[in-house]
Write a structure and sequence with these properties.
Blueprint: H1 6-16, H2 22-27, E1 32-39, E2 43-44, H3 48-57, E3 61-64, E4 71-72, E5 79-84, H4 85-119, E6 124-127, H5 136-145, E7 149-150, E8 159-161, H6 163-166, H7 172-185, E9 191-195, H8 198-207, E10 211-215, H9 219-232, E11 237-241, H10 249-253, E12 259-262, E13 273-279
Parallel strand pairs: 6-7, 6-12, 8-9, 9-10, 10-11, 11-12
Antiparallel strand pairs: 1-5, 1-13, 2-4, 3-5
Length: 280
């Protein structure tokens, strides 16, 4: 699983704590405290190891109560952070906000995965490249801890031709004729192409595309595309993308698509998580 290293955590800490905590420094409190972070709703836990790492790097101790990928029930402690009053305050919001974002992504990812597999056990939910800017590793970690997969890690990772790539050719037929050449140039990679209608889907299947990505198709059209695939190129993968979310994921999964590509888990806001501080 993806690990956020100490250097990355320290950079995150540095954004919020470049020097010292001015508020607690004014108080001059010389006591210890325990901070319990817990959800107000059921959540799939993600990045609790990062929250614990924040505490450790701020000279606190952390007790992980619910591990990554497990479900924390409402009001069940996820992690407890203990240390000096000043240091616990430094760790407080950094750890809580990390969990709020990660747990929301993981919770949505798991819900979509479970919904899809309830009607099509072979259907995979794949997260797109549309993660938060400057937070890709964090987002991917949360997706994986929510039991979903990744569509494309980056531009160097896989081949996917979009409409804007095809515009470089004089005709669609000219592009289709290049597919065998692409496959020969990248023999260890699958050639994936996005299409926007059934005619292009059929043409791509006949041209030998390894993966056909049906963008913004209705569930009914995806089912027709799956039927075409089964008839023309049964070894090709048929993927649906565009507008797929928790409300309609079952409708798309039941079509028989091999995978559903979505950014929905990145647009759900933050989990409802709170923190309780005790002076000890």
């Amino acid at each position: 699983m993806i690990k956020i290293n100490d250097a990355e955590i320290l950079a995150y800490i540095g954004e919020d704590l470049p020097y010292f905590d001015l508020t607690t420094s004014l108080q001059g409190i010389r006591k210890n405290a325990v901070l319990t972070i817990l959800p107000r709703e059921d959540v799939t836990v993600s990045c609790v190891d990062v929250a614990a790492g924040i505490a450790r790097l701020l000279d606190c101790e952390a007790q992980i109560c619910v591990p990554n990928s497990a479900v924390a029930a409402a009001k069940e402690p996820i992690v407890k952070i203990s240390g000096s009053y000043d240091n616990v305050h430094k760790a407080w919001k950094l750890a809580q906000i990390c969990l709020e974002y990660a747990c929301r992504i993981a919770t949505c990812a798991r819900a979509m995965n479970e919904a899809a597999k309830s009607v099509n056990p072979k259907c995979e939910i794949l997260a797109t490249r549309k993660s938060f800017p400057f937070a890709k590793k964090f987002c991917l970690k949360a997706v994986l801890e929510g039991d979903c997969g990744i569509h494309r890690l980056n531009l160097s990772d896989s081949v996917l031709f979009f409409k804007n790539h095809i515009k470089a050719y004089d005709s669609y037929e000219e592009f289709l004729a290049q597919i065998p050449t692409f496959k020969a140039k990248a023999p260890e990679r699958k050639i994936a192409v996005e299409c926007e209608n059934l005619d292009d889907c059929e043409a791509l299947l006949r041209a030998g595309a390894d993966v056909v990505q049906c963008d913004k198709f209705t569930p009914e059209a995806v089912k027709q595309a799956v039927d075409l695939r089964d008839k023309i190129a049964p070894n090709a993968a048929l993927v649906a993308s565009g507008g797929i979310n928790l409300k309609n994921v079952r409708e798309f999964a039941i079509t028989g698509a091999d995978a559903l590509v979505t950014s929905a888990m990145y647009t759900q806001g933050m989990a409802d998580i709170t923190a309780v501080l005790e002076i000890v």
